[in-house]
Amino acid sequence: MSIPSGTLRIGFIGAGGIVRTRHLPNLKLIPGLEFVAVCNQRRATAEVIARDFGIAEVMDDWKALIARPDLHAIWIGTPPYMHAELTLAALAAGKHVFCQARMAMNLPQAREMLAAAQSRPNQVTMLCPPPHGMRGDPTVRRLLKDNVLGKLLHFRLQAFNDAWANPTTPAHWRQKIELSGQNILSVGIYAEVLGKWLGHPLELHATRHVFHPDRQGYHVQIPDWVTVTGRWPNDLFGTLEWSGVAQAAHHEQLELYGDAGTLVYDFTEDRLYVALNGQKSLHERPIRAEEQGQWTVEQDFIHAIRTGTQPEPSFATGVKYMEFLDSIWAT
What we know:
The chain is of the alpha/beta class. The chain has helices at 17-28, 43-53, 62-67, 83-92, 107-118, 137-145, 177-180, 187-198, 297-307, 315-330, and strands spanning 8-13, 33-39, 57-58, 73-76, 96-99, 125-127, 152-160, 203-209, 214-215, 218-219, 225-232, 236-243, 251-258, 261-266, 271-276, 283-284. It has 2 domains: 8-129 and 295-311, 3-Layer(aba) Sandwich (Rossmann fold), CATH 3.40.50; 137-294, Dihydrodipicolinate Reductase, domain 2 (2-Layer Sandwich).
C-alpha cells in the first residue's frame, strides 16, 4: 500500500479497555486522521465508541471491515486469541497494522505474524508497548551505557499483586487459555522491558503453579505464580518472580547489582534509586524532566506510516518476549 499523503483512514477491531481510554483519545489529537469503522464483539459497545469518538460506521463482520478498500490501517484491540488471524488478514489486504499486546497466543503464531510482516516491508506493523518503566527508560539506558554499576552480576525482578487472590471470583479473560494463550500475568511485559535494558536470556529455568485452579467451574491452566532463574549475556544472572495471589502486595521492582553499584527501579511509583561509589544505602536518582520517556505510541505509529519507517515495538521484539513465555511453558 502506498503511504497516504492526505487523510489516513483507520478501522478498529476491538474497542475495549485501552483502546477507549488511551488509543482513541490520543489518536483524536493527531491531524489528518479519519476513523472510518469499528467492529467489536458487543455491538452496543461499538455503538457507544462510535458515538463518543466520531467513528463513521459500526460493522458486525471484521472480515468485511478489513476488506474495505477505503482503509489504510487496521487497529487491533482484541484479546490475544484474535491477534494472529486479524493481523494476517489485514496484511494480506494491504493494510498497515497496529496490534495490542500481548502479541499472540503462542510462539508459533507470533513467528507467523513476523514472517508475514517481513514479507511486506512497505506495510507498517507495530505492537503496543508496555508503560512499565517508560518514564525512566532513557535514564536507565544511559546509566547502563555509562557503566555506572560496573560489571553486572545479578538481578532480581519481583512483580506481585493480589488480582487473583480471591479463589471465589470467576475467571478473568486473562486467566482463560483459550483467550490469552500462553500469556502469564505480566511476564511478557517485563520480558520486553528487560530485553531493552539487559538483553535477552541465554537460558531459563522456570517453576509455575496455579494455586486456585477452580474458578466457578472453570478450570484455570494459566499460572497465577511463576518463578524464573536464568542467565543473560556477559554472565549476568537473574531471579524473577511473578504472583497474582500475593495478598495485599502491590509492588513491582527491579534490583540490579553490579560490582560497582546497585540500581533499583520501582515500577509501581516510577522511581529510580542507586547506590554508587561505595555508598551503603540507596538514594533516589531524580529522572530529569528532559530525559523522561513519554507515551507517544499513537504518534509513533502514524509517523511511521507517513514516513515509511518501521517503529518499535516491532513484531521481532514481540517474538522475543513470546520466546521467553514459551520457555516457561516448556519447563
